[in-house]
Amino acid sequence: VKKKRRHEWFRKTIFTLWVFPEAVLRFVIQYWATRRWLSLVLGLPAIVCAVAFLVVRPWHSRTPAVERARQFDQQGRRALEQGDLQVAAVSFRRISFLDARSPAASYGMGLTAERQGDLASARSWMQRIAPDTEPGYPPAHHWLAGEMMRRETPLELHEASILEHHLLQAARSPAFEAESRVNLTRLYLLRGEPDNAVRQMERVVAQRPAMLLDLARLHAQAGRTAEARRVAVKAGEFFQAKTAEEPSQPLNRQAWASSLVLQERYEDAVRVLSEGLNLPDPEPIHKALGAVYLQWLTATTKPDKPDPVRQLEFLDRILQHDAANERALLVLASLAVGDDQTAEQAVALLNQMLARGAAPGAIHLALGTRALNRGEFEVGLMHLEQAQQRNPRIPEVLNNLAWGLAHQDPPDLPRALQLAETAQKMSKHPEIHDTLGTILAKMGRPREAVTQLETALRLLPPRADIHRTLGDLYEQLGNAGLADEHRRLAEKLQSAPRPR
Amino acid sequence: VSAAEIVIENTASEVVGPSSRRSVHFSVALAVVVLASHLPLVLLHFYHLWMHRPHYQFFPLLLAAIAWLAWQRWPQWSLPAPAPWWSTGLLATGWTVLAAATVLWSPWLAAIALVLSIGGLIGRYAAPGQWRDWLPVWLVMWLVVPPPFRWDFQLIFWLQSSTSQMASRLLDLLRVLHLMEGHVLVLPGHRMLVDEACSGVNSVLVLLVLTALFVVTASRPLIWSVLLLLSSVAWAWAANVVRITTIALAQAWYQVDLSSGWRHELLGYITISLALIWLISTDYCLAFFLRPIILRRVDLSEFALEDSALSRAWNWFVGAGAKMYWGPVPSEEDDQVASEDPAEPDPEGQLVDPGPIRPGTYVWLGAFGLFGLLQLASFVVPGQPALVADLDSIRFEREDLPEELGGWTLVEFQPEERALRDRVALYSDEWLFRRGPLVCRVSIDYPFSDWHELTVCYRGTGWQVIDRRPVIDWQESGPDGPYVQVALLRQSGEYGWLVFGLFNQRGEAVTPLDAPEAHWPSVWEKLTRSPLACWLLGLRRRELAETTYQLQVFASGTVDLSPEQKDEVREFFLSFRAAVLAAHRGRLSQMERRP
Hints:
The structure holds 2 protein chains of 2 kinds.
Chain A: H1 2-33, H2 37-61, H3 65-82, H4 85-98, H5 103-115, H6 119-129, H7 138-149, H8 157-170, H9 174-190, H10 194-207, H11 212-221, H12 225-245, H13 250-262, H14 266-274, H15 283-300, H16 308-321, H17 326-336, H18 341-355, H19 360-373, H20 377-390, H21 395-407, H22 413-426, H23 430-442, H24 446-459, H25 464-476, H26 480-493
Helix pairs in contact in A: 3-4, 3-5, 4-5, 5-6, 6-7, 7-8, 8-9, 9-10, 10-11, 11-12, 11-13, 12-13, 13-14, 13-15, 14-15, 15-16, 16-17, 16-18, 17-18, 17-19, 18-19, 19-20, 19-21, 20-21, 21-22, 21-23, 22-23, 23-24, 24-25, 25-26
Chain B: H1 2-15, H2 18-52, H3 59-72, H4 85-104, H5 107-125, H6 131-141, H7 151-173, E1 179-181, E2 184-187, E3 190-193, H8 196-199, H9 201-217, H10 222-254, H11 261-289, E4 294-295, H12 302-305, H13 309-317, E5 325-326, H14 332-339, H15 359-380, E6 404-405, E7 408-417, E8 427-435, E9 438-449, H16 454-460, E10 463-471, H17 474-477, E11 483-490, E12 495-504, H18 523-527, H19 531-537, E13 547-557, H20 563-593
């Protein structure tokens, strides 16, 4: 019976399997034949719209969130470049919605806030992704470092450490490495850490051989002559090759010459530069030649035993190439002080320069100062007035002009005071305190004069004339003891009227 | 009821004799008493729906439609039959719920009781087979009862989020730069709130009700009806996605503002029309797919004309009964005819004769009548004065806060007035205060009804609640009562610190709810709102919906506030609340002194 039942079950299964496709087929035919196709046509809008809505999500998901974030980042940066801050703000905020931890979003929002003038918010956004003590997003570290370096107030010691941290973190990014290491070099130099500065620069030159020259200078500055020479040789080879590649580019030639100067190969440097004088614009080469000659002069002049004739010869060459070279003119002005033959030659050279129309301000200053020292007030004031008219923002000119006006006959004390006060606003040079004090003394304002002269006395080397004036002033103020003390010191110093 | 009464009377006079007429009158009286016993609280329920649930303001139309449906399906006189057990059960449940509603003074429970009682009455007086006609109508009646636990508001929030997200995806595909911060659509230079109306909750409910009425009227089969009802929700949602997307596109591409004014209204009508078109199209679509198999001999081969179990199953599935149909030429009526079960007799035109009056009927009459009277009595029980504010006299001003408050300096003041019956407050007075690097936005928002969970609004603008802590202990909260402090985080990484609280018309703090989303008042809480219970138990009565004022202090930044800064903000909230309460109480005392 069991066997029969098993067979029956088997038969039924086979029968069902045989019949089922037929039943399905019949059902499909019946179903198909009894549809109302007009209903389907009228139902099509619903079907199409439903499919459209159903497709939106998968279609939207085809673009990965990372790719979408990248697109928004690009869009935001473009908008920032174009100054469209509203688009930038929305773009960067969208990134944060796609990836809440994305530093690009905070960075972009920080940049946008900066452009909107909200520096506090910008700093806050950046600090979120670039903390002061931990590694963060290099571009934000770079931004924070730049923001610290742009501050007008000098950095405190701990702030300098934070700046160092930001620069070191920014240097992790290839995009900011060179710039950050150059800034680190500057920071270390300011902090008096030349070894660290050199280490940073050595890492820069690996990427930018053009910085070899700066590295050589750093070595020279740190007193490592051999290292400076070694690097300067490499720099010279590099810039020589660059000059061969681009002969019309004056900068490469100048850098090549500079590397030769660092090797103390002055004649070669002059030769290299002279070869560039036939360039369409030789002016930079002339200036570079002037600088080479000046360095040559400086390097070969012994401070304890100067050779004025040789100095004049070099100055003549310098001024032939760069008539406005301020340092050369200053050296020339210092040579012009005195009554010896060198001074006369220096004056003649200055007059020649003046006649050629070169750097008249500086030359007028040198000639005017010399004339004042010689007691030729009319000539001196004429030159200094000329110097002031050409550049009214040189404190030395204003100070010397004020001095001359106060000592001419009759003195013009109100104008002298005004000029001296303007000079003091521009510079904290102690000579200006002396000038101001002298003028105030002459104007009969002893208390103010004492303040200025005592400041000058504290900052300048001891001078008899200051003590003498202070003696007179204290006598006016009724302090005979102090007046006598100053006079005693003045007599002790026995100094002649100082050159200004 | 009166129309029904007339019908019954007319038919009864034609069909039955004088002995039955008394029982018919008695039955009508019972129905009237049962319905009337619910009315006081149900009317209060409708008032609350109108005032506090703007998305239910369609209910008068729904009631009218139900009345029309009832009129259309009103039964004719029929043979005597005893009341089925389930109708007695429904009536008993209705009475129990009505009793609870009266004692606890719950209009919502009264609405449930009414629907249950109507179900009981239908069962009691309709013919045995007539439930197929009445069940859909009875189910439609449930639409006047909002869901518990404020699920309708959660549905609103979900719809706002859902439509916003979908619109955002569409705008992405159309390459329109935008940002959806919660329910706020941000375009470069523009911010638009996707509010409740835009989110589609109104149109969802309206379309749902219309569809429900349609499927009942058109006698659509069950599967068909369910699918059509579901599609109505989907199409209302889709229409609102279109609406939001259109607003954004108009602004982004053509700089046309469709987010307010007559343009916004017009767009709303267009999109709801679009949803209706989609709905009609869906009905046709379902008519195509769910049509029963009705064979025509002329069209099919012998093979296809054979009886098929699958076809019979299909016909059963689509509500046409488990049999094959044959017809020379199927017509539109076929669908209707096929959708009804021919096996059962058509119950149209039958009303059960209640027969002789049973003693139980008197019990029902008395039981329902008692609670009807108790409700009426509750209205005249003496109680506390109403805590509903006269908003014309209670308004806050800039001068209510000093220029310097607790070390904070006033920077800006901005009053705002919004549309009436908005879910947000009618008035918002906003001050901006600064103290060092901290800037706080403080505001008074009013009027609200009872507790208003402010975190919902913040979630709507893209904030996530990290931590919410009600401060109830008076030693911590201070003499002016409890408040809530909330830590917030935005997806963009911004942090927020919010301190808020509410006070009522008397200036007393409203106790914050622990879990406001799923708050179910305790029996004791309900009793304190019941006039009858308060009168009997000597309790101090609370109004069903008292006017409340919301105070908030909010600070945000790109980094989280330090604990010290949070304390500063909290202290500032306490100073702010003290100043506002002093101004409020001063104004109240002025009003009391007036003749």
